[in-house]
Structures are given as structure tokens and as C-alpha cells.
From TrEMBL:
UniProt entry tagged with the keyword rRNA processing: no
Domain of life: Eukaryota
Pfam families per UniProt: SQAPI
Name by which UniProt lists this protein: Cystatin domain-containing protein
Keyword Protein transport carried by entry: no
Residue ranges constituting the Cystatin domain according to the UniProt record: 33-101
Keywords, in A-Z order: Protease inhibitor, Signal, Thiol protease inhibitor
Organism of provenance: Prunus persica (Peach)
Cleaved signal peptide residues: 1-19
Family matches, as PANTHER family: CYSTEINE PROTEINASE INHIBITOR 5
UniProt GO MF annotations: cysteine-type endopeptidase inhibitor activity
Amino acid sequence: MRLQWVLAVLVLVVPLVTAAAPDVALETWDPVQNTSEPYWINTAEFAVSSYNKHEKKNLVFESVVKGKTRYEVTGLYIVLVIKVKDGSLPSANYDVGVRDKYAGPNPLDLIYFRRRPKFW
Ligand SMILES: *[C@@H]1O[C@H](CO)[C@@H](O)[C@H](O)[C@H]1NC(C)=O
């Protein structure tokens, strides 16, 4: 009888708790307030130069469109949309993910770098 009560309470309460704590715990992103700040520019330039080096490309960084960050155990996870020029092609937006580990000679890691689908 006791166990049934416990189970009944769990069945009732667990969905309430998970529904009441929506994305707050998982989605604690802070928006980038000022995309002109040197920190974001440096991060974006790092992403472009890393990508160029690994992919043997010659993309040219233009600007940071927007971004957000999230604190993780391994450092600050930075997600940016950046505007990039590829030769004579029109500028295009790219999604980049960078981690700032804060320490060491190479604190930044490029996690991903991909062209944003058009009209997205
Ligand atoms: C954004 O940052 C740039 C570079 O640090 C600065 O010149 C500019 O005044 C800032 N803009 C705002 C609205 O704070």
C-alpha cells in the first residue's frame, strides 16, 4: 500500500516538476549585448582563421551579427553568427561555436563552423 502511494505521488509530481522547470535550467544563455566589443571580434577572427587553416580556405571575417554564451564546466561556450566574405562571392552568415577555456596558451577551441542556410 505504501509503495503504491509513493508511486502515485511520483506519477503525479514528476511531470509537474519537469513541466514547471522548462528550459530555465538547460537554456541559460546570455545574449551578446555589444557585438562590436573586441572580445567577440577576437573570438570570431579566431574561428575564421582556425577554419581557414584546417580547411585551406581564405574566408575573410567581416562582422559579428549576434551571439550568445553559456557557462559550462569546461569553459565559456560561445555561439556566434558572423558575416564572412569568401572571395568574390557575396557575404554570407556563418554559425560558429567556440569554447573559451580561459587558461593556457591556446584558450580558444573551435567547435563548429558552418554556413548558415539562406533565408534562415
Ligand atoms: C560597443 O563596443 C564598442 C567597442 O568597444 C564601443 O565603441 C561602443 O561604444 C559600444 N556600444 C555600446 C552601445 O555600448
